Amino acid sequence: MEKVALIGAGGKMGMRLAHNLCKSNYKTSYIEISENGIEGLKSIGIEVSHEEKDITEAETVIFAVPDVALEQVTSIWIPRMKIGAIAITLDPAAALAGKLFMRKDISYFIAHPSHPSIFNWEPTEEAMKDHFGGVAAKQSIVCALMQGSDEDYIIGEKLASTFYAPVSKAHKITVEQMGLLEPALVETLASTCVYIAQQGLEEVIKRGVPADAARDFLLGHLRIQMAVLFKELPGAVFSDAANKALQRGLKEFIKEDWRKIFEADNLKEQILAIT
Fold it and tell me: Are residues 156 and 235 part of one domain?
């Protein structure tokens, strides 16, 4: 069995990964220092390791810690990893910001979940309610090899498909492309747009629209709007009135230069802000 060390196993992402790894054929050591994290792991039947050799002898070390902590944590443990091992992070930000401790004699692999698509159709209620992924709903993942061989990529993708399971597809991209996806596309842009829609919902409720009616109306329209825009309904288009309202909205509150968030300098600022 391949030896895997999961650092930060009791954190938010660590617990999700641990839930799947403990059911796999990987020989996993779970590393956690916080009392809450240790108790959380115990609640799902996992004992925390306190043996340094579980990291220094591991073929793969997963760093499931927040972006702001990766620089410090990798500077402690990556120097102690054995030659030829693979360091895995779950987000591209620290790598793109130059916050990872780098060695030439190990490999670096990054894997991030896409989360279950809003257009997923799942056979069970549990899967339908698995909005984050990693429990019952299928999702794709994106993977990037920052440093290493083709064999290292295969090892990393297989492991990532295990700890993010169930995975429908693994997309191989570059670290730079992953940065364009997150934070730029899905956090800086998409999260902001969705947040404004949610704030609009709160505003019409304040103005007297019954909350249930407003919520149902918005979420139903979001579904059909996304189905049209993302080509889930081939040939379907917005009505003339809807297009006129869309064009008015673009002029009212969307800056013409919004695409600058994908430019290298702007993207670097976004990444530094979250690391």
Answer: no
Residue 117 CB neighbour total at 10 angstroms: 15
The answer to whether residues 78 and 116 belong to one domain is: yes
79 touches 192 (CB < 8 A):
no
Q: Residue 106 is part of which domain span?
A: 3-173
pLDDT tens figures, 169-226: 999 999 999 999 999 999 999 999 999 999 999 999 999 999 999 999 999 999 999 9
151-165: pLDDT as tens digits: 999 999 999 999 999
| Backbone CA torsion sign across 203, 207, 212, 213 | negative
- CATH code, domain carrying 85: 3.40.50.720
User: Phi/psi of residue 184, each to 5°?
Assistant: -60, -60
User: Of 121, 152, 173, at which residue does a domain stop?
Assistant: 173
* pLDDT at position 1 over 90: no
CA distances from 157 to 66, 111, 121, 193 (A): 21, 8, 25, 31
Identify which of 109, 241, 252, 250 has the alpha carbon closest to the alpha carbon of residue 173: 109
- Rounded Cα–Cα distance for residues 274 and 97 (Å): 10
Q: Is 107 left (phi over 0), alpha (psi -120 to 50) or beta?
A: beta
CA 64-130-211 angle, to 5 degrees, is 115
